[in-house]
Amino acid sequence: MAGLLFGTGGTPHSAKTASTIDGIKRIAELGLGCMEIEFVQGVKMGEAGARLVGEMATKEGVKLSAHAPYFINLNARESEKIRASQYRILQTARIAAICGAQSIVFHTAFYLGDPPEKAYNTVKQSLEEILSQLKRENNRVWIRPEVMGKLSQFGTVEEILDLCTELEGLAPCIDFAHWHARSGMFNSYQEFTSILLQIKERLGTAALDNMHIHVSGIAYGKKGETKHLNLKESDFQYKELLKALKDYDVKGLVICESPNLEGDALLLQVTYNTL
Ligand SMILES: [Zn+2]
Fold it and tell me: How far is the CA of 29 from the centre of ligand 1 (A)?
């Protein structure tokens, strides 16, 4: 992995069309380095389409990741809902692999009133099944549960790192905006570096060489995240985060999920490069 790459969550607004192919072309034109394909409303891309996406990404030198559908809850009450959630993650990983994407990210679960330890065990078991299935398929895409922004959602930094410590093939998606919104803290250089140190201690230096990060401005209240904002309309201290990432020589993908997508992705890249 060559350093830290910046890109958008989904096709940039300024692309010719909303297609993934035009998205990749636009990322390259803008001088950005990566893009996350948003399968958030369902994996509607077929294998043939995925091969074309992979060819375009290679041609343009754009690294890809994929975001699984939102309709996932590995802590659902009904076993068929858990199975459907597992299937959505598997499908995302299968199509992502054909696209040449290195990682997929997903929102793991809701607590639904369960004690966090109980939800953790249910989620862990469910993920184990997914990982062993992907191993059988020889699928080597990194499976990344995301740090979530609402108190009702499974996915504190601690929970995500615990899962990654216990399960092989799992790696974190650290959404710094979500964590700030959820904790009401973690918005300074020192706090950002404390997370990076925690990752290094628990998962090893290799984890910092292969990071997947989400960033955006964010609005939040008592229950955590309310909505994403553009960085300059929010209180998020992105310069401090970028400085922490640079000082710890973090490598991997930074996906910007601000409403203005490429606007803030470019802001992040330019700021990072001038540090
Ligand atoms: Zn997400």
Answer: 25
Alpha carbon of 8 to ligand 1 centroid (Å) = 12
| pLDDT tens per residue, range 57-80 | 999 999 999 999 999 999 999 999
CA of 198 to the centre of ligand 1 (A): 21
CB atoms within 10 A of CB 201: 11
Residues surrounding ion ligand 1 at CB below 5 Å: 146
Instruction: Measure 174 CA to ligand 1 centroid, in angstroms.
Output: 10
Span from the CA of 257 to the centroid of ligand 1 (angstroms) = 9
What's the predicted TM-score (pTM) here?
0.97
Distance of CA 199 from the midpoint of ligand 1 (Å)? 19
Contact by Cβ (8 Å): 89, 104 = yes
Decide if pLDDT at 44 tops 60.
yes
pLDDT at 1: 45
Residue-level pLDDT at 4: 98
* pLDDT tens, residue by residue, 75-113: 999 999 999 999 999 999 999 999 999 999 999 999 999
pLDDT recorded at residue 210? 97
Give the distance (Å) from ligand 1 centre to CA of residue 106.
6
How close is the Cα of 107 to the center of ligand 1, in Å? 6
